[in-house]
C-alpha cells in the first residue's frame, strides 16, 4: 500500500514565478491536509480539504496561496508570485476520516525561491 | 488547543529507555495528548496518543499524570533510528495538529 506521495520533492522558483505542489493521498483516503515548515520551526497547518471541498483554510495566507482537491487526481497547493519568504518544506498528510488521531504524512516538497 | 512545553534537546544511550517529558498545564478535560516524531526532515510519523489513561503500543508508552498537566513518552529500548524530533501535541478535536518546536532526541551509540 503506497504511502502519501508528493512531487516534486525539490522545487526551485525565481521570485514572481508560480509554484505548484502535488499530493496524492494514501489509497482510500479522502481527507488531505497541507502544512508548511519554515527552517528551524515546527509544522504549521495551512488547509484541510476533502474531495472537491475546502473544509478549513484557517492557516492559509490570504493572498497568493490556493489549494484544491479535485474529484480525480492529486491535491494541488498553488503559490502565485512566490517570494523568498515562501521558501520552506511543504508537507501533505492524508486520513481516511475526519477528526482522526492519525494523519499520514508524505515526504514533503522543499521549495526554494531564489 | 492547549500549549505544550518540551525541552529543546535530549541525549539517550543506545539500548536504554528514552523518557521525553511534556508539560501541558492548561489542558482541558476533552483534549487528547498526541506524540509524533520527525526523522531528519521527513514527514512526521504518528507514535501514540491518550486522554487520561496510560497507553502502550509497539513503538512506545505514554504516561499521563493524574492531573493531566504533564506526560512522558517512553521509548523502552532506544536505537539509533529513534534519533528524531519528537512533538508533543494537545488538541481537542478537529482537523489540524499544532506542532511546536519539539524535543530533538539524539541516541548515542
Protein model, in words:
The complex is a heterodimer of chains A (114) and B (109). Chain A has 114 residues and is mainly β. Chain A is 0% helix and 49% strand. The mean pLDDT of chain A is 92. Helix content of chain B is 0%, strand content 46%. Chain B contains no helices and nine strands. Chain B has strands at residues 9-13, 18-23, 32-38, 45-50, 55-56, 61-64, 70-75, 84-91, 103-108. Chain B has a five-stranded mixed sheet, with no helix packed on it. In chain B, strands 2-7-6-5 form a four-stranded antiparallel sheet, with no helix packed on it. In chain B, a hairpin with a 5-residue loop joins strand 6 (61-64) and strand 7. Chain B is globular. The chains are: A mainly beta (114), B mainly beta (109). Chains A and B meet through strand 4, strand 5, strand 9 and strand 10 of A and strand 4 of B.
Low-confidence stretches of chain B: none
Category from helices, strands and their pairing of chain A: mainly beta
- The helix/strand order of chain A is EEEEEEEEEEE
Q: How large is the radius of gyration of chain B? A: 13 Å
User: Oligomer, anyone?
Assistant: heterodimer
Number of alpha- plus pi-helical segments of chain A: 0
The averaged pLDDT of chain A comes out at: 92
Query: What is the overall number of helices of chain B?
Result: 0
| Number of extended strands of chain B | 9
Strand content of chain B: over 45%
Through-space gap between termini of chain A: 37 Å
The helix-and-strand class of chain B reads mainly beta
In terms of DSSP E residues, the strand content of chain A is over 45%
List how many beta strands of chain A DSSP finds. Answer: 11
Most residues in contact: chain pair:
A-B, 28 and 20 residues
* Strand order across the largest sheet of chain B: 1-9-8-3-4
Amino acid at each position: 500500500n503506497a504511502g502519501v506521495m508528493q512531487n516534486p520533492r525539490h522545487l526551485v522558483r525565481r521570485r514572481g514565478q508560480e509554484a505548484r505542489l502535488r499530493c496524492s493521498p494514501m489509497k482510500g483516503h479522502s481527507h488531505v491536509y497541507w502544512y508548511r515548515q519554515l527552517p528551524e520551526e515546527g509544522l504549521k497547518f495551512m488547509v484541510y480539504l476533502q474531495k472537491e471541498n475546502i473544509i478549513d483554510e484557517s492557516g492559509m495566507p490570504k493572498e497568493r496561496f490556493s489549494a484544491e482537491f479535485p474529484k480525480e487526481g492529486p491535491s494541488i497547493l498553488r503559490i502565485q508570485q512566490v517570494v523568498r519568504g515562501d521558501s520552506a518544506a511543504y508537507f501533505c498528510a492524508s486520513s481516511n476520516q475526519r477528526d482522526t488521531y492519525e494523519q499520514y504524512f508524505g515526504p514533503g516538497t522543499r521549495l526554494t525561491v531564489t | 488547543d492547549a500549549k505544550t512545553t518540551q525541552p529543546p534537546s535530549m541525549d539517550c544511550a543506545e539500548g536504554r529507555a528514552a523518557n521525553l517529558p511534556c508539560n501541558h498545564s492548561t489542558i482541558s478535560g476533552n483534549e487528547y495528548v498526541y506524540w509524533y516524531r520527525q526523522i531528519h526532515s521527513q514527514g512526521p510519523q504518528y507514535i501514540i496518543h491518550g486522554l487520561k489513561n496510560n497507553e502502550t503500543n509497539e513503538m512506545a508508552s505514554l504516561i499521563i499524570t493524574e492531573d493531566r498537566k504533564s506526560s512522558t513518552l517512553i521509548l523502552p529500548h532506544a536505537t539509533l533510528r529513534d534519533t528524531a524530533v519528537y512533538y508533543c501535541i494537545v488538541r481537542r478535536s478537529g482537523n489540524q495538529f499544532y506542532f511546536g518546536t519539539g524535543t530533538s532526541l539524539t541516541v548515542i551509540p
